Amino acid sequence: MSETRRPRWLPALLVTLAAAEAGARVLAPKTRTIEPAQIEPRSYFTSAEIDRGARYARGQLALGLAGSALDLVALLALVTRPPRRLAALGETSAGGAPASGAPAAGAAVAAAMSLGSTLAGLPLAAVSRRRSRAVGLVTQSWRGWGVDLIKQTAIGTPLAAAGGGLVVALTRRYPRTWWAPAAAGSLGVATLFAALGPVVLDPLFNHFTPLPPGDTRADVLDLAAAAGVQVGEVYSVDASRRTTAANAYVTGLGPTKRVVLFDTLLDRYSRDEIRLVVAHELAHVRHRDVQRSLGYAAVVVPAGALAVQRLSWALAPERRGSAGALPAVALAATVVATPIGLLATRLSRAVERRADALSLELTDAPEAFISFERRIALQNVADLDPPRLVSRLLSTHPPTAERIGAAVAYQARMVSPPTTTTRQTPAGS
Is 419 inside any structural domain? Predict the structure, then answer.
């Protein structure tokens, strides 16, 4: 009777999950955020508004999950029943005779996989876009969407090809330890994209304009001084050419660091509301949250790369070191990355709570915070009362009701500040 052996990839996966959990705990904000008051969403939104948000957001979530499932099934099919040409590429493994064109073949396979994934996902993407148009979120024409899709494919396919060729080269050069240089390379690429993305990639899709002198720019400078940060530059982006949704974000590293405000935000919200958004983004700058995300990756990626190597070996042991192994590597990466992503959302929500708290402290405007959260949730057709499991596993931001509850708690603290006990001095002392 043969002894059952534990799969070699399982310990590596468990170490990866432990690293992800430890990273989330270590990098989570240590400063105490505002404890939100418990509020009822129907106190701030009508039943019709709640139902509309739930129908749209949960339908979009279902489409997104369906797209992920489609990718997973496609990768599984490529691993278990590879096409003849792909199977032929795997006939020469790293332990066999050298294959001089292996990296080039890896580039071709990775490019084909990337392009195939894009094409296979088009029907679901089109349905998702049609639903967004139906609720008034999309302003861009179908032709404009197609042009953007071509741009994305023109960028993504060569990048995938370069990655595939590099992975095959590493697996042949370092058959048993390729996970280490692969992890270092992925972290380097992530840092490079974080630094150069705002000045190289983003302008390919949108037009960015530095905020001109005026109230908003003055507010940014005042809030930056109050927050004790150097903001770099603040830009308005022409988001309205694609969407009616409002948003803002921090991006870049070092000299490319910037705060970006949607023009839909600048055009439709009051000065106090815009100040709150700016303060929130400046909180991310103050606490180096872009660097924090890279730090989390540095904690998780090495163990994750080892788990991907071990799992890909188990999925396609006969194709090691060949272009034919790339579907197994991609499938392993998907399996490993999924639970990491679920754990990372908890860190993201903690970071966003701290940014909300600092925005309230910098602006001292809880009423504007509440009105902003209400307006932006309706404008972006958010799920106003999402299932708790969805919030805990998938949401990168706290739900709207919790964010409003934080402002309500802050407002109550302003009205009734905590009392302090004064020590009585004995008479005659």
Answer: no
pLDDT per position as a tens digit, 331-349: 999 999 999 999 999 999 9
Whole-angstrom Cα Rg for the chain: 25
**Ranges of H-type helices in 257-325:** 263-268, 271-286, 289-315
Please report whether residue 271 resides in a domain: yes
The owner of tokens 């148009």 is 133
Domain region containing 330: 24-414
Report pLDDT digits (tens) over 128-186. Answer: 999 999 999 999 999 999 999 999 999 999 999 999 999 999 999 999 999 999 999 99
Is residue 346, in this structure, part of any structural domain at all? yes
Residue 285 lies in a domain: yes
Q: Is the pLDDT of residue 416 over 50?
A: yes
* The total number of structural domains that make up the chain: 1
Q: Is the pLDDT of residue 423 over 70?
A: no
- 153-157 contacts: CB < 8 A, separation 24 or more? 153/115, 153/118, 155/201, 155/204, 156/114, 156/118, 157/111, 157/114, 157/115
Q: How far is it, in rounded angstroms, from Cα 297 to Cα 304?
A: 10
